[in-house]
Amino acid sequence: MRIVLDGMGGDNAPAEIVKGAVKASEEIDDEIIIVGREDLIRKELKNNKYKGEGITVVDASETITMHDSPVKAIREKKDSSLVKGLNMVKDGEGDLFISAGNTGALIVGARLILGRIRGIDRPALASIYPNMETMEPCLLVDAGGSAESKAQNLLEYGLMGSIFMEKAWGRKNPKVGLVNLGEEESKGTSITKDAYQKLKHSNLNFVGNVEGRDIPKGACDVIVCDGFVGNVILKLTEGVAESIFKLVKKSITESFKAKIGGALIKGQLMKMKNDFDYEEYGGAPVLGVDAPVMKMHGSSTATAVRSAIIRGIPYAKENVVDTIRREMLDIEALEEDFE
Questions:
Q1: What is the pTM of this model?
Q2: Cα-based angle 180, 185, 187 (whole degrees, multiple of 5)
Q3: Does residue 241 carry a pLDDT above 90?
């Protein structure tokens, strides 16, 4: 595998990007190609005392910042690390592209440069979501790729998410649920009710509507919703988890007895914190474009970069994109027969 890494994307680039790549290279035999300002990247490789042969550097003179207009940046900054990296994957010089850069630019760039899989109307940003009961992660699709979605898009999200979880995470026959304000089939907007019928009559393991309170309990393996709702779910969960840990920390430091109790459960608390830490999961796949692409959090540290690389390999190696492409052709054939 050849993993193409955006060396200039994110708040901590290139230092944490390179450090994470070095960590990952110690665990894998695959090639890592870091794209970006060659002088800066080689300086960081030297700082990390890297002397291996698993990391190569491709120079890119420009950088797309978080403040750049996505479409304008993709069209004008042709020698940016993001555009150059995507073109490398398009030209067969890489098998997977990973970036912590501008989310909008990454999604727009992936659509314009790599193109959409035939039959996919809107690519989606999928995010790993923690299951608070079994700690077996779920997949939230869409997590912010498109604020609005049609019923057909929601069906596509369920299909792509199901394939990703089965191929990349080894989840057999993953359960697919549709986020709604009630479990009943008749609940929701006209779009969610239409999507319910499409998902119900698909070949997916559709378990019906899922209410917000049941999402953290692992009601399904693939959580389907539009990008607006998905992003709210993610940010709300992050905020609640952060608040809970702050309250716990405050409670176990209020008295001598509390401190003793806190010391006894410190290991378990740290494990729980890691289960909620996005850095343990690395990145979010961009599903629906014609090659494997992953988006890391903008503030990713070396730990998140390392995790994204390790977690991203099955995404490319298990042919997730090819499987989605074949499934969409089958759906088109069924629709033509129905018509």
A1: 0.87
A2: 50
A3: no
